């Protein structure tokens, strides 16, 4: 490397692969110091504006809500009680945004006269049932609806027949 030139890669151009067999400790320390500096600047600038979520979380949440808004079975944010009142016959179902667990999406359906509430996204952000992972909430619902398959969750089963009528 020529004299006077820094071996630190500019921010945004960090390498994605590091050969650890021939690593220069001076370069490693410089990279770590720069990364810590950038992280502390980012943390300070977002501390007040976004205490619980980062920009990716907010963008992903908005994209999910926008995708779901076009579905006939999506009701938006709703309490369990309000959701249950929309279920009239066995097989009625809806997907709602939880009011008690922010950011969570719940499938509410009527099965054998009993309302069931199933979380559709696990804590890691994966859309899943007991035995399968799906690309999205729409994929999960449409797969079960089109193939007339029950959704099986820990000790519970829910058959989807028709979306509940939209709330007025």
Automatic annotation (TrEMBL):
| UniProt entry keywords in alphabetical sequence | SH2 domain
Q: Which domain of life is it from?
A: Eukaryota
Quote the Pfam families the UniProt record gives: SH2
RNA-binding listed as a keyword: no
Name all SH2 domain ranges: 73-164
Matching entries from SMART domains are given as: SH2 (SM00252)
Name of this protein: SH2 domain-containing protein
Q: What is the lineage of its organism?
A: Eukaryota, Metazoa, Chordata, Craniata, Vertebrata
